[in-house]
Amino acid sequence: GIQVEQSPPDLILQEGANSTLRCNFSDSVNNLQWFHQNPWGQLINLFYIPSGTKQNGRLSATTVATERYSLLYISSSQTTDSGVYFCAVSSGNTGKLIFGQGTTLQVKP
Amino acid sequence: DAGVIQSPRHEVTEMGQEVTLRCKPISGHDYLFWYRQTMMRGLELLIYFNNNVPIDDSGMPEDRFSAKMPNASFSTLKIQPSEPRDSAVYFCASSPRQGYNEQFFGPGTRLTVL
Question: Using a CB-CB distance cutoff of 8 angstroms, which residues of chain A are in contact with residue B55?
Answer without folding.
Answer: 94
